[in-house]
Amino acid sequence: MWLLVGTVVVAGAGVVMNSPDLQQRVRYEFESWVLGLQARFGIVPGRTPSANNVELIKPPMALHPGSAPVGVGSAPVPVDLGRPRQEPVPLSGTPPLTTIEAHAARGTVGEAIALDLNLHGGLDADSERVIIGGLPMDASLSSGARDELGRWQLDASALAGLTLHASRPGQFTLFVRTQPLRPLRFPRATAETPVEVTVLAPATASDTPPAPPPVPSIDELLERGRKALELGDGGAARLFFEAAAERDNATAMLLLARSYDPSRGTEQIGVSADVIQAVQWYQRAAAAGLAEAGAALDSLRQWLQQQPNPDEAQRKALEALTPAKS
Fold this sequence. Notes:
By secondary structure, the protein is an alpha+beta fold. The protein has helices at residues 2-17, 20-41, 218-230, 234-245, 250-260, 275-287, 291-305, 312-321, and strands at 99-102, 105-108, 113-114, 117-120, 128-133, 140-141, 145-146, 152-155, 163-165, 170-180, 192-200.
């Protein structure tokens, strides 16, 4: 059992010794624990406690001169050592505690990532330093420098406008705490807070949406439509002609109307005729000032009049082409 525990402890110590980040975190937690003990027991750093400023810690079975041993459940009785008892010094001169206001930071590799850190209360900014742990070794801050333990140190007055620069994407937690620049008469707990940082990879060309294809000119649309007709692809030709016709091109309207005209034999280009569509596009081309469209309407009307058994669409088209009698 103890051999297993010892093996685990040695393995854990090896992991800590091989990881600068873990060493930094352990050092950070140990310093915070020591400072908390100093504040709890009233020990001023840099001064050895003496018998006059440290209250004796009594064992539970202490003896009172001239009395029997104190039993369990009775209040412990202090031992009279023959010297006056030193009362604890009140901590009225202790400066107010500093608090750190922080927010999560987010940015991109290669850019300055703002760290929104603010100190409130406590000492003035010129009397405190800020220690930041957890900063990756390939990252840096815009002010201060890294110490021998790998932590980042800077004056509290330099927090305004502090930015972080990272060379690779990732997520990590910064541990920010304060430390007085000069020894204090009375110790106090240091302010500390974690800050979550997210560093994103820079946008690449693959992340950028492709540029839309250039819009072909009307002449290009007409040329592609004519080539489609030569190949017998009336469906593709209609798409090209309609795209140009929607841009108010009269020639495209005329060509589109011809592709629907039943009197011109649309079967040879692989599409079905639509006499209503033919009349509408011929009329739009004529309204745009194209004389050929008017002649095409006359020719289509004559063809419709010659049909022995016109269908419903043909009768409607003929009515649209026949001038009303006054």
